[in-house]
Task: inverse folding
């Protein structure tokens, strides 16, 4: 089992190697500023009490308040959250927004809870941590298995406990409760903007074939966006199964079927695959949009995609990175490709602080300008230095973080 925090640290040290970044900076980024573990008591619908473990890792505040999602997942663990927090520090620096890096998690399978239990757990997470959160301290957002509704419960609980009415302590909220236009599509849309900025540079002109691993908020939106721009999504997957049709899929029809049947099994006119098989399909663009450690030294030699667009966090191990680089497969790293979520989260935070509400057109315009300029910058650095785009992105982030050292 690959330890994601060890992978994140290896990426950090690979980027720092041979450069003159201050040792103080690299040592500082190799560990979190703060790690909090809490126990959340939850009264179940039957009156019994269960206890759930929760985490908040506040990695680095050099550039601003900690920023990062909260995931509800049965396999969440502290090393995973540490890695995600480190990546978030690098991501906010790559996007050049004045936020730091943090991440949170609760060890729970939310599918096993009723809606009422899920709300009580969400509020319990805030009660356990509210003294360490806040608009100028730490601003959580949705992540795996957390939703705008969960964020609305959390911000409501925070307001009750603190009296803060700005609603800026959490982002990813429903629009009618202080959320931003464009937030739901932000990560997928941002990924597409990065793809558009790089496609010609990577010899991917015209319509491309795409395989999307993961049908959550990010993967679902990404699949629809690619199809809406006349590209062909040939494969999609959930956590259990994948489907493939070389003539192309209708992502909306796939999602409707999944919602109705709670499975992709039986979807008409497709070949059933495993998630592992999806990663090795002969496509132009592979979009890992699920969990970390999907591309490894075992399967990297068999990846046939020309571009890997990382919309998940940490889907490629360092060993796989090296193999893909040597094979000429271009990997667009997560800290660039999926930065759309944190960019629009920060725009939501800014709107809340100012008491404003911007149009979706304005939000997506700012998102596009941010990511296209950073994609061009990172690609240019990678070409000049003769390194992967991941190392180039880390180097850009480190340069910006070094400027904030006291």
Result:
């Amino acid at each position: 089992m690959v330890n994601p925090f060890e992978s994140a640290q290896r990426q950090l040290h690979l980027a720092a190697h041979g450069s003159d970044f201050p040792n103080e900076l690299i040592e500082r980024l190799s560990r979190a500023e703060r790690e909090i573990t809490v126990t959340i008591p939850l009264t179940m619908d039957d009156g019994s009490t269960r206890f759930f473990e929760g985490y908040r890792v506040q990695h680095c505040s050099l550039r601003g308040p900690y920023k990062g999602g909260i995931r509800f997942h049965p396999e969440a663990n502290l090393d995973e959250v540490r890695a995600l927090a480190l990546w978030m520090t690098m991501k906010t620096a790559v996007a050049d927004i004045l936020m730091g890096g943090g991440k949170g998690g609760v060890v729970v399978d939310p599918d096993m809870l009723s809606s009422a239990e899920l709300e009580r757990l969400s509020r319990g997470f805030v009660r356990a941590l509210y003294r360490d959160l806040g608009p100028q301290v730490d601003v959580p957002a949705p992540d795996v298995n957390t939703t705008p509704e969960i964020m609305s419960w959390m911000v409501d609980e925070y307001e009750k406990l603190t009296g803060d009415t700005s609603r800026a302590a959490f982002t990813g909220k429903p629009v009618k409760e202080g959320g931003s236009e464009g937030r739901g599509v932000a990560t997928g849309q941002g990924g597409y903007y990065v793809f558009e900025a790089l496609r010609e540079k990577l010899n991917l002109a015209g319509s491309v074939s795409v395989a999307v691993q993961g049908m959550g908020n990010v993967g679902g939106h990404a699949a629809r966006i690619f199809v809406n721009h006349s590209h062909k999504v040939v494969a999609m997957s959930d956590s259990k199964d994948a489907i493939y049709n070389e003539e192309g899929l209708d992502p909306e029809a796939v999602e409707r079927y999944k919602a109705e049947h709670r499975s992709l099994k039986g979807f008409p006119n497709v070949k059933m695959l495993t998630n592992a098989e999806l990663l090795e399909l002969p496509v132009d663009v592979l979009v890992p949009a699920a969990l970390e450690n999907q591309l490894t030294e075992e399967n990297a030699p068999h990846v046939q995609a020309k571009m890997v667009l990382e919309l998940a966090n940490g889907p490629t191990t360092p060993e796989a990175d090296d193999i893909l680089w040597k094979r000429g497969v271009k990997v667009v790293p997560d800290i660039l490709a999926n930065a759309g979520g944190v960019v629009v989260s920060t725009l939501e935070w800014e709107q809340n602080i100012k008491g404003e509400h911007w149009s979706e057109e304005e939000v997506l315009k700012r998102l596009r300008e941010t990511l296209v300029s950073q994609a061009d910058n990172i690609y240019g650095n990678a070409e000049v230095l003769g390194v992967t785009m991941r190392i180039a992105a880390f180097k850009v982030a480190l340069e910006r973080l070094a400027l904030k050292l006291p």
Q: What stands out?
A: The chain is about 45% helix and 15% strand. Residues 34-177 form a domain with the Rossmann fold fold (CATH 3.40.50.10860). The chain has two domains: 34-177, 180-406.
